[in-house]
Write a structure and sequence with these properties.
The protein has 17 helices and 14 strands. It is α/β, with parallel strands linked by helices. Among the domains are: 214 residues, Rossmann fold (3-Layer(aba) Sandwich), CATH 3.40.50.720; 182 residues, Arc Repressor Mutant, subunit A, CATH 1.10.10.520. β2, α3 and β3 form a beta-alpha-beta unit. The longest helix has 21 residues. It starts with 10 loop residues before the first helix and ends in a 57-residue tail after the last helix. Bound molecules: adenosine-5'-triphosphate and zinc ion. Zinc ion (ZN) binds next to loops.
Length: 627
């Protein structure tokens, strides 16, 4: 091993490497490379944590894993494989989520440095906070295709992971998805919503039926239908898609006709929508007039995944996948549901078929199953070389951190082509200091919460704002100056408040809340500003991370343009935007300039306690287009 071979490293560093204790978070694409580098560089004491098991799709790049390991714990197999390179290293593995409360500040304080090799913001945000609290240097890294990024997060010295709002990721208005799709991605998102409506965790925000409250139709469209059939949420008042499908025993033909004939006819009755658009063409089961692809054609010779299915093929796949998913679904316990996964054959077939049928109906170009999969899973192909280079730089940074040479630990960006500075590996010139207004690492973290206090409940304040948007784990909340305990992390203590509206518990415009997460050792001051939310599916709240930005525009011009330039300059890849390795994580809208705007909207991949997998709720999913 390098560190045990005299002369490879200078003596002082060699000693530090041998004596240090390192935590690796994530044993995926980057994590495997990092672990191998650590072991081969002579690190003597390593711990590694990963919540997942090995999937076949990991094998092409996560080289510590082989076919026989599929289904086994990533952390445990990574440990065993790495030990085969150097049995003298002490490696401890945890098959667990780093978000678990078992890993408190004391756990982190045992390490000299923490190396993140994660794929989602939720876990990254959390480790960031824990390392700040424990005052342990964190090396954050990520890749997206050929791009990679490595940065050191050191309390008081550098930006933290949450110092800067993350770049906006693309989402689509509900009415585009439900009424007027114009691109393949709109149909793919709709198909994923449909999967959830039929078999998954159904969610009102993901309704797939025509949206009669589409602002475009407000004047006159939908006419009698609107007046008679829609409720104030804009949804046609009828049994839920799932209840309807169940009542019809998930008959593929009936579901087909409802979705692609009746609902489309209904949409056509909303005439305003089609004044400037090509109207959709309803399709009936069995009326497939499209010619079959000739056996000798290029299309016919492509693999099932690569070719564009004609409508008849789509209908067959639609029926087969529905039948299979129905059988899976009815095996589940009452209240349990399926979870869409791009690597599940039938779930993927279902989405590919539905999306393509809908595309056909709306005259949108169709996509192969392969293309649908990458769009539906927000996949940027994982490039093993980028992971390897990134992991190499992570470990080089680790050497610097152990030597406390922090001034040599600037962020590094890996690019496919030479940057303006003629580099493929482009380091920042200086270490970017912490943002004094950061709502995580500043001395007095504060935010403004614009919220409809007449509509939001205390439970939603806890689950949607504090836990999902602000990434707390076990929040406690009191009203400042009044001492009213609104939310307690002690089980059951404030359960009675759950369904109370904020206004009814004295959380009104101008009120200040003190939120506190004991586990993360994090305190946050929240100034509440009431805003009326008109439509039920509109964003219920908005978090403004820098309260200063609420001041009149003129005063903020400088601050805003600086932050914009920073974002553009750094061309962030994964560290802030996507994720390690392969998938752009599922995040909600975050505006770059003025505020962090997080709509109250559930994620497709949210997994309730009933799911078998332990995965975090931010993973490769939904609504975001990778450009
Ligand atoms: N909260 C968490 N605790 C522990 N490990 C986590 C957590 N969240 C994500 N991870 C792990 O981080 C790793 C990230 O690796 P990577 O980006 O290569 O993802 P992957 O799941 O292996 O690949 P793909 O997403 O392409 O299937 C994964 O192994 C994942 O299980
Ligand atoms: Zn910060």
């Amino acid at each position: 091993m390098a560190a045990s071979i005299a002369g490879v490293f200078e003596e002082n560093l060699q000693k530090k490497i041998l004596e240090s204790k390192v935590l690796v978070v994530g044993a995926g694409g980057i994590g495997c490379e990092v672990l191998k580098n650590l072991v081969l560089s002579g690190f003597g004491d390593i711990e590694i944590i990963d919540l997942d098991t090995i999937d076949v799709s990991n094998l092409n790049r996560q080289f510590l894993f082989h076919k026989e390991h599929v289904g086994k714990s990533k952390a445990e197999v990574a440990r065993k494989s790495a030990l085969s390179f150097n049995p003298n290293v002490r490696i401890k593995s945890y098959h667990d989520s780093i978000l678990s409360t078992d890993y408190g500040v004391g756990f982190y304080q045992r390490f000299n440095v923490v190396l993140n090799a994660l794929d989602n913001r939720q876990a990254r945000n959390h480790v960031n906070r824990m390392c700040l609290t424990a005052n342990v240097p964190l090396i954050e890294s990520g890749t997206a295709g050929y791009n990679g990024q490595i940065e050191l997060i050191k309390k008081g010295l550098s930006q933290c992971y949450e110092c800067k709002p993350k770049p906006t990721q693309k989402t689509f208005p509900g009415c585009t998805i439900r009424n007027t799709p114009s691109e393949p991605i709109h149909c793919i998102v709709w198909a994923k919503h449909l999967f959830n409506q039929l078999f998954g965790e159904s969610n009102a925000d993901e309704d797939v039926s025509p949206d009669t409250a589409d602002p475009e139709t407000a004047a006159e469209a939908g006419k009698e239908a609107l007046a008679t059939e829609s409720n104030n949420k804009g949804n046609v008042e009828r049994t839920s898609t799932r209840a309807w499908a169940q009542a019809n025993n998930y008959d593929p033909e009936k579901i087909f006709n409802k979705l692609f004939n009746e609902d489309i006819k209904y949409l056509l009755s909303m005439e305003t929508l089609w004044k400037t658009r090509t109207p959709p063409q309803p399709k009936l089961w069995g009326e497939f007039t499209e010619a079959c692809v000739s056996e000798n054609s290029v299309e016919a010779n492509k693999s099932r995944d690569q070719k564009i299915w004609n409508i008849e093929e789509c209908a067959k796949v639609f029926a087969t996948s529905i039948n299979f998913l129905k059988d899976e679904f009815i095996k589940l316990a009452e209240g349990d549901h399926l979870v869409w996964d791009k690597d599940d054959k039938h779930a993927m077939d279902f989405v590919a078929a539905c999306a393509n049928i809908r595309s056909k109906v709306f005259g949108i170009s169709q996509k192969s199953r392969f293309e649908v999969k990458s769009m539906a899973g927000n996949i940027i192909p994982a490039i093993a070389t980028t992971n390897a280079i990134t992991a190499g730089i992570v470990v080089m940074h680790t050497f610097k951190v152990l030597q406390e040479l922090y001034d040599q630990c600037q962020s590094v960006y890996i690019r496919l082509r030479l940057t303006g500075r003629n580099k493929l590996f482009d380091p920042d010139k200086v270490m970017i200091p912490p943002n004094p207004k950061c709502y995580v690492c500043s001395p007095k973290p504060e935010i403004v919460l614009k919220v409809d206090t007449k509509k939001m409940t205390v439970k939603s304040l806890r689950d949607d704002v504090l836990i999902k948007a602000l990434n707390m784990v076990q929040p406690d909340v009191i009203i400042d100056g009044k001492g009213v305990i609104v939310i307690s992390s002690e089980e059951g203590e404030t359960e009675a408040n759950d369904n109370i509206l904020l206004k009814d518990i004295q959380i009104v415009d101008g009120c200040i809340l003190k939120a506190d997460d004991y586990f993360q050792n994090y305190e946050l001051s929240i100034t509440v500003i009431h805003k009326d939310v008109e439509r039920d599916d509109a964003e219920m709240f908005e978090v403004v991370a820098d309260p200063g930005l609420l001041k009149p525009e003129q005063q903020n011009l400088t601050a805003q343009s600086t932050s914009k330039n920073n974002v553009a300059e750094r061309m962030e890849t994964d560290g802030n935007n996507s994720d390690s390795d392969c998938c752009i994580e599922d995040e909600e809208i975050i505006s770059i300039l003025s505020s962090v705007v997080i709509p109250k909207k559930r994620k497709l991949s949210d997994e309730g306690p009933s799911e078998k997998r332990l995965k975090s709720n931010n993973e490769d999913d939904d609504l975001i287009l990778v450009d």
